[in-house]
């Protein structure tokens, strides 16, 4: 007998765009004006608020097993494989995963450890695994230059040399990243250090320190995963899964709970908050802890961004993590927002407090020491114009180095979304600071260490980046839009880190500093 739909069909109107509309958007047309001039109405908002049954315990990805070699190297193993996943009991969907049918285990390593990951590709097509947010040599980065053929293996190794943070891993094949991530190839990578371990914060994995990997998806009425509608941002699903779980709930036995939020969607951005209107308490962003916790109305995450938040529970209560995007939060015109998920609302995860909770102390006032942004050391300024599916009017070329960076220098990157459309920006290898947004200081939630940010339309972002080591003029890192369809369309560039006086050797078309 077919399983009943989890949501009311009348509420689920998936946003779709015609090819002609997408072409107009890509060309930078004034979409809102075009809609109005033709008398058309934009897509109806999607909302699952109040409709999610929350009848399935939240799946917690297992911790990745590891061993330590004689030389002290901590070794992990990942196998990219195809499989079948029942998001609804009895209704299998074809999926991909690492060491399983969907998603992958959570890797945990400590600052100062030397790690190796033995990755095997058991798929029938090439893929990669990129360590998103990790500081490591370019040849270990897992970008499109480190493809792993079917049946082959790859064993990158590096020193963990950054502070405690919530990172993640996912494929990065040029032209196919959206597809590989959407099929399920993703997992968390947690970096630990002594300073964070000394803080009185929740830290029991899967109990009071919980991974929350959020993805949007499409399902048939019976519960089989199916295709998603497409806007300019990319493919957009009409419901959410968390850690691969539909309708998830989490039983809570502790007064204070830490959620590690990861937007692993390929195109959709979220504005996370609580169903009862309480502030959401942010303690960390992409690159690690903030100096102090910040209470916000919502935490916005574009694809690839992470945030750690705390919630203090009362015995017996239930509260729902939600996402309620608006054009104002997204900084988009109403019609453009409606076509790209910017008016959609979702119930994400229900927390259920036990009748009696283990007490928790107050959150430490000082979580981290983050030095002020120092622009006095800037040696080079570069500009990046995001428009259509191009950066600086160029599409990605695998054989072209776009920028050559000198090792042990600090740079200023001016990143501007000159269009009215949504974009984001991710830089491999380094965690950076946002010095200003349209000339003003960033808000507290963007003042810490970042590797990815939502580039609001018609907005300028000033980044300060320091390239401390790992000079390799032959092997590039990437910078790109992390709306993965945009990346696949060529909205990506390459930079190499070289010794003073060197230029990248991949091509003679290298762009020079300016």
**Per the principal axes of the C-alpha atoms, what is the gross shape?**
globular
Distance between the termini: 65 Å
Mean pLDDT across all residues, rounded?
91
Low-confidence stretches: 1-41, 508-514
Number of strands: 35
- Percent strand: 35-45%
Give Rg in angstroms: 22 Å
In helices, the fraction of residues equals: under 10%
The helix/strand class is mainly beta
Description:
This protein is mainly beta. Helices cover 8% and strands 40% of the residues. The chain has seven helices and 35 strands. The strands form seven sheets. Strands 12, 13, 16, 18, 20, 21 and 23 form a seven-stranded mixed beta sheet that branches. A hairpin with a 5-residue loop joins strand 2 and strand 3. The N terminus and C terminus are likely disordered.
Question: What are the SSEs and their pairings?
Answer:
Elements: H1 19-26, H2 31-38, E1 56-57, E2 66-68, E3 74-88, E4 91-98, E5 107-110, E6 114-121, E7 130-132, E8 153-154, E9 157-159, E10 165-170, H3 177-182, E11 187-192, H4 194-197, E12 209-219, E13 225-226, E14 229-230, E15 235-236, E16 239-242, E17 248-254, E18 256-263, E19 270-274, E20 280-285, E21 288-296, E22 299-301, E23 306-312, E24 318-324, H5 327-330, H6 334-339, E25 345-358, E26 378-387, E27 390-391, E28 403-406, E29 409-417, E30 423-427, E31 433-437, E32 452-455, E33 459-467, E34 477-480, H7 484-489, E35 492-498
Parallel strand pairs: 1-17, 3-6, 5-11, 12-18, 17-25, 26-29, 28-35
Antiparallel strand pairs: 2-3, 3-4, 6-8, 6-9, 7-10, 10-11, 12-13, 12-16, 14-15, 18-23, 19-22, 19-24, 20-21, 20-23, 24-25, 26-27, 29-33, 30-32, 30-34, 31-33, 34-35
